[in-house]
Amino acid sequence: MTRVGVVTFPGSLDDGDARRAVRLAGAEPVALWHGDHDLGGVDAVVLPGGFSYGDYLRCGAIARFAPIMDEVVAAAGRGMPVLGICNGFQILCESHLLPGALIRNDHRTFVCRDQGLRIENVDTAWTRDYSAGQEIVVPLKNGEGGFVGAPDTIARLEDEGRVVARYLGSNPNGSVHDIAGITNAAGNVVGLMPHPEHAVEDLCGPGADGLGFFTSALRSLVA
Ligand SMILES: NC(=O)CC[C@H](N)C(=O)O
């Protein structure tokens, strides 16, 4: 069975839901700890949401130096699928696995709401099970969710089709070009500000629109 590691940092909040999403997608969730020096032989890694190290300095700025991140960076370089959700996205940017940065929401308050997204790139390890242009709704909850980058960085992301998802409706945090998620050039590393792991069952929340991220990874590993 495919094994997907979910890293817990001090202050992680959504690691339990991420493991649950992995299980509902049909894989075996493996709990990994920030101080681990190996990935335990997993096939893919999720960096979950939360408040790693209390969001001190900047969100993700300290987690980036956790021992396990050396292993995550090395595995991502070998093509392992890595998904960073919200605080995980912040950690991926701080680790330079993804370009740009997440800064304080433009309205300066924490936002928590169900959020419409358009999936723009279905050629990544985490979005294969969606169709291009598909609109989904998943929860969004962050204080530092504004995606920014140097003009040439943003232009390169757009030119190379590396924007994975965009916000629909009013922009919730000031992200440039309504960017909600991006991928690296190889398509194995994806960062997403909204939370698909909270939308994996029809009985809860806005529905099961988020499950596709987790089933996509399984298909990528089998393909
Ligand atoms: N839900 C989250 O992962 C929040 C991330 C981070 N703590 C922020 O407020 O932006």
Tally of helical runs: 5
The bound ligands are: glutamine
Largest sheet entry: 9 strands, mixed
In the CATH scheme, what's the topology name?
Rossmann fold
How are the strands of the biggest sheet laid out side by side? 2-1-3-4-11-10-9-6-7
Q: What name goes with the CATH superfamily?
A: Class I glutamine amidotransferase (GATase) domain
CATH-scheme architecture: 3-Layer(aba) Sandwich
Strand content: 25-35%
Structural class: alpha/beta
Shape: globular
Q: Over all CA atoms, what is the radius of gyration?
A: 15 Å
Number of domains: 1
CATH class: Alpha Beta
Pfam families: GATase_5
Subcellular location: Cytoplasm
Keywords: ATP-binding, Cytoplasm, Glutamine amidotransferase, Hydrolase, Ligase, Nucleotide-binding, Purine biosynthesis
Subunit structure: Part of the FGAM synthase complex composed of 1 PurL, 1 PurQ and 2 PurS subunits.
Explain the overall architecture.
Helix 2 (about 65-75) links the parallel strand 3 (about 45) and strand 4. The chain starts with a strand and ends with a helix. The strands form two sheets. The protein has a nine-stranded mixed sheet with strand order 2-1-3-4-11-10-9-6-7, with helices on both faces. The protein has a two-stranded antiparallel ribbon with strand order 5-8. The chain contains five helices and eleven strands; from the N terminus they run βαββαβαββββαβββα. The protein is α/β, with parallel strands linked by helices and about 220 residues long. The model has no long low-confidence stretch (mean pLDDT about 95). The radius of gyration is 15 Å and the shape is globular. The chain has helices spanning about 15-25, 65-75, 85-95, 150-160, 210-220, and strands at about 5-10, 30-35, 45, 80-85, 100-105, 110-120, 135-140, 145-150, 165, 180-185, 190. The structure holds glutamine.
